[in-house]
Amino acid sequence: MNPVPASPNPPSSPPPATTVRYRIEHDTAYDYSQTVSVSHHLGRLRPLDNDWQTLHEFRLRIDPEPSQRVDDIDYFGNRVDRFFLQEAHDRLVVRVFSDVEVGCPDWKPDMPSPAWEGVRDGIARDRSRGGLVAYECCFRSPLVPVGEKFADYARASFGEGRPLVEAAMDLTKRINAEFSFDATATTVSTPVSEVLEDRRGVCQDFAHLQIACLRSLGLPARYVSGYVRTEPPPGKPRLVGVDATHAWVAVFCPGLGWVEFDPTNRCLALNNHVRVAYGRDFGDVSPLRGTVVGGGWQKLSIGVTMRPSDEDEASPESGPSEPSPLSQSQNQSL
Predict the structure, then answer these.
(1) What confidence score (pLDDT) does residue 309 get?
(2) Three-state secondary-structure class, residue 88
(3) Could you tell me which of 262, 240, 242 has the C-alpha nearest to residue 303?
(4) pLDDT per residue as tens digits for the range 303-331
(5) Domain-by-domain residue ranges, the chain?
(6) Tens-place pLDDT, residues 240-280
(7) Which of 150, 12, 22, 129 is nearest to 77 (CA)?
(8) How far apart are CA 62 and CA 45, in angstroms?
(9) The domain 20-102+286-330 is classified under which CATH number: 3.50.50.60, 3.40.50.2300, 1.20.1420.30, 2.60.40.2250?
(10) Cβ neighbours of 273 (radius 10 Å)
């Protein structure tokens, strides 16, 4: 079969949308039933500072104070904060304040893009740096399988010769319409195949499912973690994911780069989304994880507040008075 040619009108990157500046407070607390003697932790909590985002300020406060702190960059280009506690403790509190300005491209669902088959057939031959990075995201990863059942589900959106962005947006809308948001339906270990069968889950599940569908068609897709702004139009409900960390999907499109889709909220991820980390799946971008010696059982609580910086707001020094219970859209691990 001859590959479907690209669109006769080569796409070009759209202009950036109006920038929006946000102040974000993210509190995490671990309460242990027994004393922890030593613990090592790794956090991906720092919003990205790149062509789309400007990180004006970032503060990380840890109680108890770590004996050592190191920050570096991981394989995927995310900023990582590592810290080590060597004093006995029965509670760990990690408080983050970020001041970030977002100005990503103003993507449109109907903007010109190549036929999806042309992207599929061309990505393996692309030896550019960007092409090689994208090709890595065409295969299964620890939390995202590939297989015929995922390809079958995707094919209703990916008709012959359909532009990639249009097809990916259609898949985004179908997942939103056909799957129910249910924070009680899944756990960290729920397989994507079970999510496809039961049609229930949270943002992490929907992102993994959409990535599985795209990769099963041979298309490059990656996982995005961050925050979502939830200010609905008058009379409309708030977007799912308010006051929580969030997850969505990026699809590589030649000529446009990585275009981002949010299946939980049925939209393109634009300036209402703040990017923190990219990876193959959630395992590459977990906000906070680590290893502890001792501790017994643990209770995890999280509170997130995200608001435009021009709104009246409480002092960032204070943060939320008490973190809220962890929701399934905020999975973190120790």
Answers:
(1) 86
(2) coil
(3) 242
(4) 898 989 887 444 344 343 333 333 344 44
(5) 20-102+286-330, 116-284
(6) 545 678 999 999 999 999 999 999 999 999 999 999 999 99
(7) 129
(8) 13
(9) 2.60.40.2250
(10) 22
Nearest to 208 by CA among 155, 169, 264: 264
pLDDT digits (tens, 9 = 90+) for 171-184: 999 999 999 999 99
pLDDT in tens, 55-109: 999 999 999 999 999 999 999 999 999 999 999 999 999 999 999 999 989 899 9
Q: Which residue has the tokens 């840890």?
A: 62
d(CA 256, CA 282) in angstroms, rounded, equals 24
CATH topology of domain 116-284: C8orf32 fold (3.10.620)
SS3 letters for 103-116? CCECCCCCCCCCEH
Kindly state the tokens that stand for 163.
């532009």
Give the tokens for residue 63: 């109680």
Residue closest to 252 by CA, chosen among 148, 162, 120, 128: 120
How many whole angstroms separate alpha carbon 225 and alpha carbon 277? Answer: 5
Q: What is the pLDDT of residue 8?
A: 34
Chain position carrying tokens 């036929």: 115
Residue 126 pLDDT > 70: yes
